[in-house]
Structure formats: structure tokens, C-alpha cells
Design a protein that fits this description.
- It is a single chain.
- The chain is α+β, with helices and mostly antiparallel strands.
- It folds into three domains: 93 residues; 64 residues, SH3 type barrels, CATH 2.30.30.60; 85 residues, Alpha-Beta Plaits (2-Layer Sandwich).
- Helix content is 45%, strand content 20%.
- The chain contains eight helices and eight strands.
- The strands form two sheets. A five-stranded antiparallel beta sheet has the order 4-3-2-1-5. It has a three-stranded antiparallel beta sheet with strand order 6-8-7.
- Strand 1 and strand 2 form a beta hairpin.
- Helix 2 runs antiparallel to helix 3 and helix 7 runs antiparallel to helix 8.
- The relative contact order is 0.09.
């Protein structure tokens, strides 16, 4: 009597035609996924105000197409009942241990799509990285940092660690910038200059409120007045452009109106002359 093993049953159950059909299904699925994703990406570039929504649709479509393609590829193999039982019985433990992390990541990806803690296009902070979510896949999420580094993170990591989203699916995002001046400077003037620089920027989203908060702080061991500018940028992709634009305007305005940075306070009790770099010039009056 022949020794029939699960491996023998599997080899006998597979046929060349079924394997070729499954490979064709996988190739067609790959082509369709690329076509759909590319088309939606180009559409998002044209429809800027709907870019995040289109990115979300592309993510769900890519996810579902791969799932459907996988099911069709298995059906194309045309496996018999004996082969299926042999595969599930003999290889279940081995495959389970080998693919447990992959299965966890796939389930986590489904959870992210349903729960939506963040979406494609969001600016998020995760595990020391900050950037834009560019793709949510079956296994991992791709995050592009502001210095253009691509970070690939397994989906299941997002289920156990904290993640913060700066815009939570919206196209605009709140930007916060701090400016420091000396205690003896004209706070009212400085606040007005910061406000004017914020409002005159091309990147500000004026449909949402903006403000400038003032308080006294100890910055790097010296007292200072902090002006915290808070406003929404028109598009998350203009985050750094907005910060650069406003900062340049504020520095130029401070220089033109004689608003000085904080002074380093040093007690020279022995009568020694302090170094010139430690003494701030008095603000011109009159």
C-alpha cells in the first residue's frame, strides 16, 4: 500500500493549468491596482480641494482589489477538497507561526480603515517620526517625513502605540510659531507686527480663527516675552512654506521697528566690563 502523505496529495492536486491561471489573476490584479491608484492620484492632483478624500478612496479601492484578487487566485487553482484539507491540516501550524505578524498587520489595516484614527494625507507624529501618511497598505503604512525620508511602519504597531494627527482628515491644519522679545520691548507693537505678518501670508487659511498669545517665560535660562502665533495653513503641504514666510516677515518687521530679542542677564559685581556679545543694544527712542 502506498504511503500517502499530505505533501503527496498536494502535489497531485496541483496542475499546471491552475497555477498559470492563478498567476494570470495575480498579474491582472497588480495591473488593475496600479491603474486605479494612478488614475485616482492624478485626479487628486487636479482636484486639490478633494485630494484627501480621493486618497482615502484610493486606499480602500487598493485594499479591496488585492483581497478580491487573492480570493480569485485561490479559486483559479481549482484545488480539490482533499488538497484543501491537506494544506490546512499539515501546514496550518507552520504557516500560522510564519505569517502571524503578517496576519496581525492585515487585521490592523482593516481596523485602521474602519476606525480611521488617521487617513492618507494626514500629518501625523508616531514613534519619533513626523510627516505625511502617503499609503495605507495590507501590511504596512508609509509615512514621508518633511526631509523626504520614506518610513515604512507595520500596521499592527499603530494599535499599541500612541499616534497624533495634526489635521485629522482636513486639508487645513493649525500651525504654531513662537517669537521671543526682551522684557523691556514694546509688547503691543510686537504683537501687532506678528499679527500683520500672519494675515499677509499667502498660505494662511482665513476661514478659521487665528490669534497671537503673549506670556512671560524663561527661555534658555533668561527671561523673555513669548509671542505665540497660532493660525491655520491653507493646505498641509504648505506647512513649512507658511512657517518660513511668516518668520521672515516677522524678523524683518522687528528689525525695522527696533524690537530686540531677550537680553542675557549677568551680574557683574566685580566691576568687570561684560563682553559685547552679552549686551543688547538699547532701543532707539524719539
Amino acid at each position: 500500500m502506498d504511503d500517502v502523505t499530505p505533501r503527496t496529495i498536494l502535489l497531485e492536486g496541483l496542475n499546471l493549468g491552475g497555477i498559470l491561471s492563478a498567476l494570470i489573476v495575480v498579474a491582472v490584479t497588480w495591473f488593475v491596482v496600479g491603474l486605479v491608484t494612478g488614475s485616482l492620484t492624478r485626479l487628486g492632483v487636479r482636484m486639490v480641494d478633494r485630494r484627501l478624500l480621493i486618497n482615502q478612496i484610493a486606499t480602500v479601492a487598493r485594499f479591496m482589489l488585492w483581497v478580491i484578487g487573492g480570493v480569485l487566485a485561490v479559486r483559479a487553482l481549482n484545488l480539490s477538497r482533499e488538497v484543501i484539507l491537506a494544506m490546512t491540516g499539515a501546514a496550518a501550524v507552520t504557516i500560522g507561526f510564519a505569517l502571524k505578524d503578517l496576519a496581525a498587520s492585515v487585521l490592523a489595516g482593516l481596523t485602521i480603515l474602519i476606525d480611521r484614527p488617521f487617513q492618507v494625507g494626514d500629518r501625523v507624529s508616531f514613534s519619533g517620526y513626523y510627516g505625511e501618511i502617503t499609503a495605507i497598505g495590507l501590511r504596512s503604512i508609509r509615512l514621508t517625513t518633511l526631509d523626504d525620508n520614506l518610513v515604512t511602519i507595520p500596521n499592527n504597531k499603530f494599535l499599541t502605540e500612541l499616534v497624533s494627527s495634526g489635521n485629522a482628515g482636513a486639508l487645513d491644519m493649525l500651525i504654531q510659531m513662537d517669537f521671543y522679545i526682551g522684557l523691556d520691548q514694546d509688547v503691543t507693537l510686537a504683537k501687532r507686527l506678528v499679527s500683520e505678518c500672519m494675515q499677509s501670508s499667502l498660505y494662511i487659511f482665513t476661514d478659521k480663527p487665528w490669534t497671537v498669545l503673549v506670556n512671560q517665560v524663561l527661555e534658555n535660562n533668561y527671561p523673555a516675552i513669548r509671542l505665540r502665533a497660532k493660525a491655520y495653513v491653507l493646505d498641509v503641504r504648505y506647512e513649512k512654506s507658511y512657517e518660513t514666510d511668516v518668520t521672515e516677515r516677522v524678523l524683518q518687521a522687528f528689525a525695522e521697528h527696533g524690537v530686540l530679542p531677550p537680553r542675557v542677564l549677568v551680574d557683574w559685581r566685580d566691576g568687570a566690563t561684560p563682553p559685547a556679545r552679552l549686551v543688547s543694544r538699547p532701543r532707539a527712542t524719539g
